[in-house]
């Protein structure tokens, strides 16, 4: 199992395998915290075509990126799932302050909660929305009073207003799947400049800082460069006669 994944993903693989065993052997229903898209793909791969397991994902609303996974016996497949997700909205005076996704996430993390406690965060012109686990909702509502320079009050809501974001596709040909090579092709940088950004800790792959230019990127990986926004390796469209990779990369538009 491990040879198909990265070394740092092994603890999560073990966690999913434990939940699968609890579902099959002890007939338990299990919920994970909020998983990023890469973790969702790993969970799908670990569970595979196991006919004894019903695996489903949900983040609080259609279109969410971060989702909880439900792992339960297959005979419960047609039964409703209690996702234990709370949705919050907080209005703020945008005339006096501007908030970003990073501001909200930083404030939430400063409450002492772990990242898997929170799902998608959406910031609009005069409000922000956040999904969280129901068990943490009461504490978060009390603890989160300040985001950046804005004083906020969280109110529970039935909807999660998500931004209409699309990927701007960019076909590229690269000599390897190294991180520095992909960043160079995506942003029009030299390999040396891309390596410098990586070495300074300004680049994340699947929401984790990667500091090695030789890090091998996989199809579906989410990339971000501080100050330049997010990108994604959308798909591979073959290999050239000179063994170069034809890829389609995406940038948030």
TrEMBL record:
The keyword RNA-binding applies. One of its GO terms (molecular function) is RNA binding. CDD domains: S4. SUPFAM superfamilies: Alpha-L RNA-binding motif. This is RNA-binding S4 domain-containing protein. Pfam families: S4, YlmH_RBD. It comes from the Bacteria. The keyword RNA-binding applies. Residues 177-239 form the RNA-binding S4 domain. SMART domains: S4 (SM00363). Keywords: RNA-binding.
